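assembly run, all chains below
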Amino acid sequence: MEMVNIKINGMPLSVPNGISILEAARYAGIEIPTLCYLKDINEIGACRICMVEVKGARSLVTACVYPVNEGMEVFTNTEKVRQSRKMTLELILSTHRKECLSCIRSGNCELQKLCKEFGVDNEHAFDGEMPAFEFDDSAAHMVRDNSKCILCRRCVAACNQQKVSVIGANARGFDTHISSAFDKDLADVSCISCGQCIVNCPTGAIYEKDDTAAVFAAINDPEKFVVVNTAPSIRVTLGECFGMSIGSNVQGKMVAALRRLGFDKVFDTDFAADLTIMEEGYELLDRIKNGGTLPMITSCSPGWIKYCEHYYPDNLNNLSTCKSPQQMFGAITKTWYAQKMGIDPKDIVVVGIMPCTAKKFETKRDHQAASGYPDVDYALTTRELARMIETAGIYFNHLPDEEFDNPLGEATGAAVIFGATGGVMEAALRTAVEVLTGEELESVDFTEVRGQGIKEATYSVAGMDVKVAVASGAAAAHEIMEKVKAGTADYHFIEIMGCPGGCVNGGGQPIQSAVVHNFVDLKGRRAAALYEADKNLPKRKSHESEAIKRIYAEFLGEPNSHKAHEVLHTSYVKRPKYK
Amino acid sequence: MLKKISKIPFKGTPEQEAQLNALIEENKHDSSMLMHVMQQAQAIYGYLPFEVQVMIAEGMDIPLEKVYGVSTFYAQFSLSPKGKYNISVCLGTACYVKGAQSVLDEISKQLGIAAGECTEDGIFSLEASRCIGACGLAPVMNINDDVYGKLTPDQIAGILAKYKD
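ok done. output:
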């Protein structure tokens, strides 16, 4: 790599030629502020916050896109630079609906933080005409409030990265706004509900539909038996909302907090993840033996499911008919558990704590009501749970570690890794290999399917070669589905998750600033915590769970039995790409 | 200015569709030809409604939102069809100074449409044009090929009446 010698604030540095001033400054321990910049996917130099002085240049330059060259002298903290940034912030504020006290992102807003850092002391410096923008709450999972949009286009970049591309900048000049084609409501376009736009928004312009008030009301209703279940990834991300480092496993504190919030039972979605492995694993074996549609593709991720329904409606038969773990959990709670406890399912409220905004959409899908009542009543994001904990005045960081309730709180390591890309595949392999060979695995680690990007592997199981693939993020799904559509994908089983990196990077996870997205391996660190949790569990194979054995013995009979189909399987619908 | 999306039903013909498909076929391997395809599509249909933009998006393998973004960014693209009679009011300097804006406003008021739009019955469309070089007649407007000069707002009702079939 060719290196060049530059000076930043007088400090001599040797950095790779051609990198941006922004990246070079990091070598000198200097954080240049940004609003629009997302490494690799939104390098557009639009927001003008990252302006710096370069010796000899006619004007200030944008550090995020300006490459370094030999002998360059950069100044990141001059009076001119500070004044420029301050004025840019004041101009952004001139069309920003300023309700910072009650805004959902107050305290975690990149614009608010910069205003504080640059001493913006007059938020009305350039008051004038405000653009008239509509508030779009048509979608099941999120709200778009363009009156707080700063036109950084990070959401657009996130949507494009997903190859969904249903939002973009429309009109021009003062009228420029982010919306969908023909300014249709989000509910009327082929949005997959993944929420990647939300976790990349610097302000409060896009956010999840908040269901916390409804959940508090259910908890306060003495007639209701409120059951909560937490998805695998929540235990390794929730801590971030309380200032803990990325990848902290807070399972015990999370359980304690949920109990203190007043939920009647605190269960683990991981139980249902183990159940998914049983149902999906046997479904795969059945398809292989009896000439069913292959490759079979996982159905845990509702963002992926919606993507498939909109963009590959002719391949719905490739999808496993299994409900997602969240929905399986709800179905079992309102059937088997309700019976056991002698509670009328109409009085049970099931709340899922999910890394995901598409889960909100999923709860409202058809054929997701095994008991006659919706399997799941509310799907809250990790962020909403954190908000409830704050509202309730629970001092999260000082909580003791507590255990999940039984019987739906028991789970194996196979279930925990569902939260990372490749996790479902690995969990399925652990069970499938033992079931097919009848022998115990020497090692339960299938490391070939771990990590980022599209992964392929072939395993020899009981004399048969099983070919698998794993993809995360809708763009990777697109790549694999083009092969499936063309009939050239010779896999037996594919795991697809709607978000890049899987649930640990879901659209419902704690929002980290662009700096973290750009320069920290967020997905990797969160996933590592899940694999660590798996390693430390006594049982790491779904079929070894006592709760699973019991539920089949008492209620379902065999995996894929008639009863199991009634309770745990679902159907899909073709959805138009345009309407 | 925000462009108004016409609610007039799309009335494309098979001939127009064949022309558009041929155009897309010729250019689909190069996404940088999007502007060209949109300009030619507008020449074929007179405007770029939803149906046409979907054909372009699918044919060129470019997200519909991107096509729409381009169509709303550039003034040259219209989301409203041309009416049977297209009224073009000159807003060049001479016409403007002589009161063309009040003429445009009067037409807009009488027809209930803004510049760039078409009446729901498809009879009239209205647009503001740059200088057409007839400054001696300022303020001036065209209705299809008919030219009207030295206009005042009070003449408008009478002129429009001539075209109400």
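Chain A has a mean pLDDT of 96.

Residues 269-290 of chain A form the longest helix (22 residues).

not gonna interpret more than that til we talk
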